Amino acid sequence: MAGGRFYQNVATQAIAMTPHYGEAIADFVEGIRLVDLWGRMGWAETKRRYRRTVIGPFWSSFSLAIFVGTMGIVWATIFKIDPKEYLPYLTSGMLVWLLLSSFITEGCAVFVAAESLIKQLRIDYSILLFALVWRNLIAFGHNLVVYLPVALYCGVPFNANLLMIIPGLVFLCLNGIWIALVLGMLCARFRDIQQVVASLLQIAIFVTPIFWSPAQLGRARIALADANLLYHYVEIVRDPLLGQPPAVESWLIVGLATIAGWGLALFLFGRFRRRIAYWL
Amino acid sequence: MASIILDDVVVDFPVYGVQKSLRRMLFGLFRRGAADKRVVVRALNHLSMTIRDGDRLGLIGANGAGKTTLLRVLAGIYAPTLGRVHINGRVSTLFITSPGLDTEDTGYENIYTCGRFLGMSKAEIARKLPDIEEFSELGDYLAMPVRTYSTGMLTRLGFAVATAIDPEILVLDEGLGAGDARFAERAKKRVETLLRRTNVLILASHSDDLIKQMCNRAVLLDHGRVINDGTPDEILAQYHEMLKRAQTPQLTVADDAPALT
Questions:
Q1: Which of A1, A6, A7 to mutate to test the interface with B (most CBs of B within 10 A)?
Q2: Measured by CB atoms within 10 angstroms of the end CB, which terminus of chain A is less buried, N or C?
Q3: Which of B186, B183, B118, B175 minimizes the C-alpha distance to B150?
Q4: DSSP annotation string for A152-200
Q5: Are B19 and B38 spatial neighbours (Cβ–Cβ below 8 Å)?
Q6: How many C-beta neighbours within 10 Å does residue B28 have?
Q7: Residue A179 above 90 pLDDT?
Q8: For the segment B232-246, what is each residue's pLDDT rounded down to a tens digit?
Q9: How far apart are CA B51 and CA B54, in angstroms?
């Protein structure tokens, strides 16, 4: 094979990726308009789990209920906390954590999983992100069914603070989108990142106050709890569920994270959106 | 007036995961201080062309010549590594005739989903639904989940939806699969009607007959470059001539590719 040789690129200067922020924004604008498409995509997953099963997506709620029921009693006993106080805290925390961690885990795979679609059809990447968030929000809704009886039985106050769950969820989803975008792009380019994220998430559930409350830490609270961004994401939805007033500190941090995160996401998306198809 | 202009387009596909071992090999062969070598495959090599309204363009070339890559650049799936593409008009691609097909959904639901993926608006789908129903000849099956369909029925459904679009620029990789013989005859007519509605067609094919049937212009591609541009008959003749003389496919070498992530 006389002439056949691999092509070599010997350019010594990296050409800066020309940013196309206009395209990045247009992608999102068009994605929002295609709400019926990603709405269906999100439901399709849920429907699939419903088909020919008796309780469908509630199976995951069932396993959540078992986990919370058993471990709730065990840990409440170990920590010497009244179960009626601990169970709602654990349940609501787990609920939100499952939503948040699904954004992170599925976010890593969002572009890789859609490789065949992306290479055959010109789509706006944002519809994949919106479908991801919507799909997991539906799952959250199903899991909420587990929390209601727990809250009622344990005497969680149902007051006006519950309304804060709406902005809480809105902001969690807004952040979910940029997190999925950044992680999705990183993992499309560097496949190892998915493994790293999975490993970190495994420890994160213990390091974040889900099974324990910051009050139990005492003075070490600042380091472990407050510095953990994930803690604040959980707080903004957990507090309303527990009938507690919003934590100003958490809201401030989440607000900052939303702005900074979207800035980062748009920056990366503007620069690398055109490369995604090449990475897959 | 639909048109596409390709201006000095280069498409380099990065080959990840090959670098390390290849670099060792290259260091051995070339003994150059190679700090920033990346391995890429150049699919399109400084390609320029203009496609005008009314063109029914056939892309002809051997495997690896760059036909599929060019189609995908025209479709907006791959942005060129270097150079520019100016697309004037809406591009519809039919690489997959049923994008987003969900086997658990009914025929009607899939008509809607696939239609949306193919770029039709809700109103457009509603308006064309009777036509799609009638052409697919699926009758009551349309209310059943698509997983109950035979392959032929799936093809008819996908085909019916795909040919219901109103493309300004239509990009096809080979023809559209049409199913059984009786259906093929009706399908042929439907494709002709579709083409009459289309301003620009770009078709890549290995089938001489298909190109002669559907195209009024053809380009010959080789190693990511346009070798010639003319009528389908001319280009096909030149292509066959080239095949007789050809050896194994070769990758092109170029020195000016940019280092990209």
A1: A7
A2: N
A3: B183
A4: HHTT---SGGGGGHHHHHHHHHHHHHHHHHHHHHHHHH-THHHHHHHHH
A5: yes
A6: 8
A7: yes
A8: 999 999 999 888 887
A9: 9
